[in-house]
């Protein structure tokens, strides 16, 4: 039964990953993610339903448009597969329960906003609203500890807001502030503080490497690193905190 649930979870993750690709391409361009039919980015031809099967269609078409033969981006299968894998890891670590469902949905939002932020240096507010809604659901499913989540909403976001005004908006982006508020409501104050710490460490190390290897400038998109910190905290946050406390005392 556990193996079956894992397979179902990964499959759903892959299917949802296909929709994430739509969001990644259309939202920054102001296109509708609901009304507009799927079409080739090169020739504009509408894509038939049998060419929209996640992973399978890309392999069958050998990574090319059926009509104009233009090469399709590897982002399509990569996002689909990665979303499925991330879903699977959550279920393996946390089990199949209502919290894991919320975490999986949040992971899809984090993955999508990370790619968009990486390319545009902006986090669309809709993703933060979505994560905030998941946070509200989390509070309702754990009313006994509602204060942990409410404190989490302010714990990091308030600090970042002060930083924002202290640096005239140069030290942190408004989207990052909203992201940490929404995620704090979902995972609570302890884990959101940990997420910030992990995000800062990952951002510093990885971006320094990218500056050295790829000549990246000093300006970085912080959203992907914060998202990675949030994901790690959802998986192993409690263990990391317990380990840290045990080494300090």
Structure explained in plain terms:
- With 249 residues, this protein is mainly alpha-helical.
- The protein has 2 domains: 1-96, no CATH class; 98-249, no CATH class.
- It contains 10 helices and no strands.
- Helix 6 (146-155) packs parallel to helix 9 (189-213) and helix 8 (174-187) crosses helix 10 (223-248).
- The longest helix is centred in the last third of the chain and has 26 residues, at 223-248.
Q: What is the compact description of this entry?
A:
With 249 residues, this protein is mainly α.
Key features?
249 residues; mainly alpha; 70% helix; globular
H/E element order: HHHHHHHHHH
Count every beta strand, where a strand is a DSSP E run of 2 or more residues: 0
**How would you sum up the global shape?**
globular
Total of domains = 2
The biggest sheet, with number of strands, parallel, antiparallel or mixed sense and barrel status, is: none
Rg value? 19 Å
- Mean pLDDT, as a whole number? 93
Number of helices: 10
Distance between the termini: 42 Å
- Measured as a percent range, the helix fraction is over 70%
Approximately how much beta-strand content do the residues carry?
under 5%
Enumerate the spans where pLDDT stays under 50 for 5 or more consecutive residues.
none
Which class of secondary structure composition applies to the elements? Answer: mainly alpha
Show the helix and strand layout:
Blueprint: H1 2-26, H2 56-60, H3 75-94, H4 98-120, H5 125-141, H6 146-155, H7 157-166, H8 174-187, H9 189-213, H10 223-248
